[in-house]
Amino acid sequence: MALSYLTDINLNKNELQNVVIQKLGANPSSPAEGQIYYNSSDDTIYLNTSADPANPVWDSLGGDVTSVVAGTGLTGGGTTGDITVNVIGGTGITANANDIAITNTGVTAASYGSSTAIPVITVNAQGQITAASTATISTDLTIAADSGSNDDVTLGTDTLTFAGTANEIETSVTNNQIQIGLVTNPTVSGNLIVSGNLTVSGTTTTVNTEEINLADNIIKLNSNLASDAAPSQNAGIEIERGNSDDVLFQWNETDDDWEFQAYNHASTPALTTYKIPTTFAAAIGDASATSIPVAHNLGSKNVIVQLFHVDTDETVYADVVRTNTNTVTVSFTVAPAANKIQVLISKVG
User: Fold this and answer.
1) Is the pTM value of this prediction over 0.85?
2) Which of 31, 44, 197, 272 is the most exposed place for a label (fewest CB within 10 A)?
3) 303, exposed or middle or buried, with CB in 10 Å at 0-12, 13-18, 19+?
4) Cα–Cα distance between 340 and 328 in angstroms, integer?
């Protein structure tokens, strides 16, 4: 006949010997908090940790650690350095990361990496960190492109400079603006396409190509002259001719004329500047000369010559000889006074 106690039994710290835990094939119903029993189906002792009899929580008391074999790194000696845990009735030991301290991995406690360096971590097959250090970014950095946004690089408002060796590109970022400046003597080996405007701030631009194609139908020279400034500089095109004299095609700002340089094709050719306009005007007269040469530099004998007196504005006539393609000679019976005869010359054709 089993005894039933309705009050607690105090053994006053005496041993309870030869005791057998209650054997059941399943969890007992409406258990009290702290109640234990032996499950004969899985041979495991269970403890109820819930104070609510209607919602018991049965924790297994099986899987006890029965022995530990220590390696050379633990007290007790050993030869392999491994830890062997024997477990009864369980599948293993579960612990939080902060519950296990791993030592002798060769890693010193420190902070690795910085704003100018990246951390380098070595992990073994057991997930242990065996080495840690920092490395500067000294090699090429490649970000592979794809159709998503994973390759985007976002920079803050501080200045970021990529400094390289010769023929590389130096980039700086300030206030969310990217500034790219080429270092000394940069080289672009492939084709270069600039989708926006290109501004060159240097003093000399050299193009070593055999052909230049421009979509613009007007090329503006002296474009740095302010719109309210008086013109003062000639502008044109100069042709390099090696060991011969260079020739020039330009606008002469002093004379307000187009002009070009060419050889005069005489017996001893000399480089001569010719005016491009098809008209010429000049006042002539010399009280001591009846024959006066007039250099019009129009480059042709196909010219019409007309004379008038500057005091009366009347047309006057004299002998005119087209001496060469750039000069006519006007002859008078009586030498006119200085600058009294205006000569008008027009090129035809």
Assistant:
1) no
2) 197
3) buried
4) 18
